[in-house]
Design goal:
The chain is mainly alpha-helical and 82 residues long. The chain has one domain (2-69). It has helices at residues 2-6, 8-11, 16-23, 26-69; strands at residues 73-74, 77-78. The protein has a two-stranded antiparallel sheet. A hairpin with a 2-residue loop joins strand 1 and strand 2 (77-78). Helix 3 (16-23) crosses helix 4. The longest helix is centred in the middle third of the chain and has 44 residues, at 26-69. It is rod-shaped and about 75 Å long.
């Protein structure tokens, strides 16, 4: 992903209509690289959000499993599992 974001010219993130509109105007030629980067950023943002949420849920499940299987110690000794 970092390689694609770092090299937007080769990624060709633009659709045919956007590319035609940007390459046919002098202002568009100046904006082409920034436009590619913006498109790639918008593509990658949902994956980052879902990845963070997924990692947080996975971490919470691991913690719950650890709490469930960890032996509980009391002053009188370990308590039996239910």
């Amino acid at each position: 992903m970092v390689l694609v974001l770092g090299w937007p010219g080769a990624a060709a993130a633009q659709c045919a209509m956007c590319k035609t509109a940007l390459t046919n105007s002098p202002e568009g030629r100046d904006l082409g690289e920034q436009f590619n980067r913006a498109i790639l950023l918008m593509i990658g943002a949902p994956y980052a959000v879902f990845g963070v949420v997924g990692a947080a849920l996975f971490r919470e499940r691991l913690r719950a499993a650890w709490r469930r299987f960890r032996p509980r110690l009391s002053p009188a000794g370990p308590t039996p599992r239910p």
